[in-house]
Amino acid sequence: MASPKRRLLAILYGDHLDSQPHPQAPLDELAATCSGTLELQTVKNEAWDGVRQRLQSWQPHAIFLSCGVESRDGLEQLRPLRLPDAPQAGGGVASPLQQMFQDVPVECLMVDALIQPAEAEALHAVGIQNVVMWESGRSVPMLPALHFNHAFLTTLAFPQAGYNEAFAFGSHSVQAHCTVSLGGQLQSPIMPRWLSQAPAALPTNASIPPPSDQSLDLSQGIAAAVPGWEDVRLLAPHAELRLLVCGQPSLIDAHRLSFLGEALRAILVLEVRRATVTSTTPCERLPAHLPPGSSALRCSIRSQSGATSLAVLGGPPSVLSNPGLVEHALRQTLVADALSLQFRLPPPSLPPPAARSLAHVAGRTPVVDALVLTSVWAVQVLRILSQDPSFRGLVSLGIGGVGGSPVASFRDADVQRFTSIVQSHPDASTSQAVAQQLVSTPAPANGAAPSQSLPRPSREGSEQEGDLDDGQDSELNSSFVFDNGATPGDVGTGITSEMAMNGVGHMHPGLPPVWQSNRPPMHECPEEAFLSDLAAFLRERKHAKINTDNFPDAVLNGQRLDLFNLYREVSQRGGWKVGNGINWKGQVFPKMRNFSNSHRMTGVGNALKRHYQLYLLDYEQANPADVTGDHCAICGGSDEVSTDWISCDMCNIWVHFGCDRRPYLGTFKDYSKSNGRNYTCPRCAETKRQRTS
């Protein structure tokens, strides 16, 4: 069933509105591209009584109230809030804003003007629970405010997008594009304020609607209601995708890309958290690393905006035979996988890619190459969305090209806006005054210098009970990885992987040089020597600031992350390239000090992968001798034979579980799950039998 349209009323005040577009309202773009999800009405310089009548008769869900811009000190800035013909406040009479929205059930008010916080907070008394406002007492340049308006209002066009999600999305886009470097220091733009009991947050797996099956008792979580639920897995081969992003080379920076990466994740989450399954086909050949008795479905999915893609879901037949559970499982695993998208930075030894202007991309706005690491299904979705003239999400992030193709929804107003933003970033040929078009400072009451501290991207993590083992790690938040020339392996689903895109060879010089470790080989290396060598590597190769007394600073299951055993267990299993062939939850986690029999963590497998990517992946690639060759002691084969690797608990050699044909062994799951059975290889079993006979 189609979602009801969100009604948006734009109340505009300013000069020359009858003859030219409003400088701060992207209403023409919204009217042209979002008519299917937004119902838009506009009033311009309307008298007080006329505005009140429109509010009461139409009863909009959201309000965009703008007073335009004015030139002060040679800079276009937001005006203070002025409501013509408004009744006077005072003497117990409510403020003009309160009177305007009295008895009108408005869900969200966006005040695109300077206003006192107390006046905005008073709107809660008339039932407006969500308020976006720019605080008076400071100068707010037009460009970041205009860019926020585009991103915020564009997000409202997503069906079921929350106002708090739209605010967080807009804020992330502004932080990515309007943060500037002045005197070698990053300075963040002034941001609007969000006044609401609901915290501003990008969408997570907690926003997925529950299963449609009303017979399920979800009071204890879906894992308790559906036997075998935790064994369902998304088989998603990784892929790299080249993006062309409006900006200067300074955009390819860890701070800016962190915000841009989280916002791009949010687009994917908004697209797939209510995705529908249009068809399913059983896989003719079961992926080798699934436990015996499993089945797999190749699913055609349709995102919220109509993008189509393929995904493979594996798990118990009892779950995959239920269409409602299949759709819910896909939503959960796709969202979790979307949250693993990361930008890949060039190696620290190389300069960032140069900006270039292309006639067919973003109207010749300067763009830079950026590389993201994600999954094949996400590449398919982003490619289709980029070709949809009505999809505005990518434009709101300044993405002008996807995989070598231009984004079709770029309009002349977008070109003008992003060209102005790009030109406002100071470089060797511009003065600091140019940057004031993006950042400004509040007027301190006591003459003290304003704070220059930068915000950090922050996602509200979710420990949702019953999440599948592809969940987002709430203790680790990184939207980028340094380029190490390595790509996680395909899991063998038959989906073609787009691993290398044209035009980005300068970003990938190949594998990093081998690291000259001062520690013993891993099989005899003590933990202290390993951590010391790893810290030295991260300082030199990734320019990380590390306090050895508090390294690592990540926490898992209430304890400091056990990097030593995490690295040892993964490298002994063939390293990162084995990918899903490693049972991170069932075999790696129990070997770490973070494991406890009573833990209730969900998504721990994906959490370990994310920690490994951030701390250990580069280190592994620079220490190839640490990785145990993935050759089965029984058949001598590698991953092309099977990926159901299991280690003998007596001699630590590795075999394919399926190659061990002895009777009564049980299933692979009996050994790989937490507190599973101990495995003894045929050679050790025979030695043990001879000793006891």
From TrEMBL:
Q: Region Disordered: what ranges?
A: 429-497
Answer whether the UniProt record assigns the keyword Transport to this protein: no
Where is each ARID domain found?
Answer: 524-624
Q: Which CDD domains match?
A: ARID, PHD_ARID4_like
Superkingdom is Eukaryota
Keyword tags: Metal-binding, Zinc, Zinc-finger
Return the SMART domains for the record: ARID (SM01014), BRIGHT (SM00501), PHD (SM00249)
Q: What positions does the domain PHD-type occupy? A: 629-687
Q: Name one GO molecular function term.
A: zinc ion binding
Protein name in the entry: ARID domain-containing protein
Gene3D superfamilies for this protein: ARID DNA-binding domain, Zinc/RING finger domain, C3HC4 (zinc finger)
Where are the compositionally biased (Acidic residues) regions? 463-473
